[in-house]
Design brief:
The complex is a heterodimer of chains A (342) and B (332). Chain A contains 13 helices and 7 strands. In chain A, helix 3 crosses helix 13, helix 6 packs across helix 13 and helix 7 packs parallel to helix 8. In chain B, 37% of the residues lie in helices and 19% in strands. Chain B contains 12 helices and 14 strands. The chains are: A alpha/beta (342), B alpha/beta (332).
């Protein structure tokens, strides 16, 4: 037995980080979840087009490796704050797609009982303190959660997801500075998808890499290819180790791309069709990861097919659950504004 | 042995409340700019850092937005922060976290979290600090569902309401008038609370109800004492909480006196006076009114530097006396 496992370890010795760090089963689970994120968002988009979901939504299709890679080394009670483009983070942290769909449908069985919708999706039980409609709004909150962790000695690490747009908000700078001076267990994850709505980072941001901002706050700043799961997971793993050891925060810049527009009102006039197609054809995070898994012998075509089928069923079941769930009573309108007294 | 009535200043009362809160609950801590060895810009935190250490009395960088957000994040995850804005004017820098995050987080998440944060705002004019350090912005926050907004007017209430705020599961914003900090009054020892959402009748009377907030409660009481000699009997209602507002106490008082004067320091229009007037006009007390409702509020101007101009900006005792006399005598 010991010899057999050593042989497995040896055979993986030259592979990228995640193949050395995690079991084949864990890695197949990651592929499953990356598909789940993608199909969830495609399903949500379709429901929106059919008028089943109102409002708007911000899809992260194309950014799945970033969400999964960052959350891979997190424990269940570690916490995250998320963004308006937060569906992937929510699923990666352990949420059920049925309750997410229910939230998008505005139903009482949704994570926010129909009060939050896509932009405020949360799963507090799994450590997701919520997506946020305000760019950079969750960053100081994550620092506060990390302060709680340090004060109460819970050992929790907190991840704050935000986009490239947030790096020019004052809250980003104030929060990074405080996390650094107090050495808090927090990881700042900038998912740089190239555009803050329509404005490219080249036009909005004075530094070439947002990770360079870390130098101003004396913390490590790491750039990773956000479409390569292993690269993201490795950076996150190191940042989590550093945070748990009491050495303070890290800024990770995960360079990625969103295939869809900023929101449902986007006419894509600030980028070319060719640019989008190039990312989809050559750097798709799911294709890249799936190909690696197959090439390294962690999964075969039948295994991939089984994952796709299982995900399709989960999505279909989730939408049915949402449709069948009850809507909130109008009489409950003022619930949850204040904490109810028993 | 006769019980000695213990007196503390308003600032000392707040400090004592914060110490008691920290003694009672390990989760309570203080954050703010220069609240440590400096003792706070108005010496409200004083020497608390020496007694509770820098882990529980945390000097923040000059980062009101980030600091407020850290307090919100700590509150959501199990702590009980008391965050001091050095001047209430700096709420403008923290509004995002106060209005979009603290106030709405519980609602947006369908009741899955509470945000038990307390924020303290030294407010008001009268210190010669001019337009950016003298404002009364409580009505701004009073407009936001999800927040509770209080304005204690006495040392007794300052302590009791702060302790109530710390125990409250929701975000409580405390506006403390800077000119009240040195005011002395009876403050009981130990732990007690004064309920949020309950107005207090400071003086009973038959002829006129004055609904006042914060320092204007003291000025209204002075005016009422002065008018006693003229046979005018004034009831002074200390509103204490502007959200949730105590409608019933106001309505009952107006039904008794049939006249209403609202006195507050903030800019007159679109403020607390409008709310109090409207809630009376919408209630059964409207039928009891013998005179138009009158508001005395701040002038439609920023707070000026020159001391005479500054005084002229906000209601003074003489203004209240004149307005009350006119109302009761039917001049208006």
């Amino acid at each position: 037995m010991a010899g057999a496992s050593k042989a497995v370890v040896d055979s993986r010795a030259n592979l990228p980080f995640v193949y050395r760090q995690y079991s084949p089963e864990q890695l197949r689970q990651v592929l499953h979840k990356m598909y789940l994120i993608r199909r969830f968002e495609e399903g949500a988009e379709e429901c929106y087009m059919r008028g089943l979901i109102h409002g708007t939504m911000h899809l992260s299709i194309g950014q799945e490796a970033s969400a999964m890679g960052i959350c891979m080394p997190l424990a269940e009670d570690d916490q995250i704050t998320s963004t308006h483009r937060g569906h992937g983070h929510c699923i990666a942290k352990g949420a059920e797609v049925s309750r997410m769909f229910a939230e998008f449908f505005g139903k009482t069985t949704g994570y926010c009982k129909g009060r939050g919708g896509s932009m405020h999706i949360a799963d507090v039980a799994k450590g997701n303190l919520g997506a946020n409609g305000i760019v950079a709004g969750g960053i100081p909150i994550a620092v506060g959660a990390a302060l709680s962790s340090k004060r109460m000695k819970t050992g929790k690490v907190v991840v704050s997801f935000f986009g490239d747009g947030a790096n020019n908000e004052g809250a980003f700078h104030e929060a990074l500075n405080m996390a650094a001076i107090w050495k808090l267990p927090v990881i700042f994850v900038c998912e740089n998808n190239g555009y803050g709505m329509s404005t490219s980072t080249a036009r909005s941001t004075a530094v070439k890499n947002i990770a360079e901002r870390a130098a101003a706050y004396s913390m490590p700043g790491v750039v990773v290819n956000g479409n390569i799961f292993s690269e993201v997971a490795e950076a996150s793993f190191k940042a989590v180790e550093r945070a748990r050891a009491g050495e303070g925060p890290t800024l990770i810049e995960s360079k990625t791309y969103r295939y869809r527009g900023h929101s449902k009102s986007d006419r894509n006039r600030y980028r070319t069709k060719e640019e989008i197609e190039d990312w989809m054809a050559n750097r798709d995070p799911i294709t890249l990861f799936e190909t690696e898994l197959r090439d390294f012998g962690f999964i075969d075509d039948r295994g991939i097919e089984a994952i796709r089928d299982a995900v399709a069923k989960e999505i279909a079941d989730g939408i049915e659950f949402a449709k069948a769930s009850p809507a909130p009573e109008i009489a409950t309108l003022e619930n949850y504004v204040y904490t109810e007294h028993a | 042995m006769d019980a000695v009535v213990r007196e503390l200043s308003y600032a000392q009362a707040i400090q004592e409340a914060m110490a008691i809160a920290m003694d009672m609950d390990e989760r309570v801590f203080l954050m703010g700019e220069d609240i440590g060895v400096y003792g706070g810009a108005f010496q409200v935190t004083g020497d608390l850092v020496e007694r509770y250490g820098t882990d529980r009395v945390i000097d923040t960088p000059i980062s009101e937005l980030g600091g407020a957000g850290v307090a919100v994040g700590a509150a959501v995850t199990g702590m009980r922060p008391i965050f001091e804005f050095q001047f209430s004017d700096f709420a403008t820098l923290g509004m995002e976290q106060i209005v979009n995050q603290a106030a709405k987080m519980r609602f947006m998440l369908g009741g899955e979290v509470s945000v038990p944060v307390v924020m303290r705002f030294p407010a008001g004019s009268g210190t010669g600090a001019a337009a950016q350090h003298s404002q009364s912005l409580e009505a701004w926050l009073g407009h936001v569902p999800g927040l509770k907004v209080i304005q204690p007017a006495t040392p007794h209430d300052a302590k009791g309401m702060l302790l109530a705020a710390v125990a409250d599961p929701d975000p409580v914003m405390i506006f403390e008038h800077k000119l009240l900090y040195k005011m002395k009054g009876h403050v009981p020892e130990g732990h007690y609370t004064v309920p949020i959402g309950k107005a207090e009748i400071r003086r009973e009377g038959r002829d006129l109800t004055i609904v006042a907030t914060s320092i204007m409660v003291q000025k209204a009481l002075e005016a009422a004492a002065a008018l006693e000699g003229e046979g005018i009997d004034i009831e002074v209602v200390d509103l204490r909480t502007i959200r949730p507002i105590d409608r019933q106490t106001i309505i009952d008082s107006v039904k008794k006196t049939s006249r209403l004067l609202c006195v507050y320091e903030a800019v007159k229009t679109l403020g607390i006076g409008a709310e109090v007037s409207a809630l009376v006009a919408e209630s059964e007390a409207f039928d009891y009114l013998d005179a138009p409702i009158v508001r005395l509020g701040g002038a439609e101007t920023p707070i000026p530097y020159n001391p005479d101009l500054e005084k002229a900006t906000v209601p003074q005792v003489s203004d209240i006396i004149a307005a009350a006399r006119d109302l009761v005598k039917g001049v208006r």
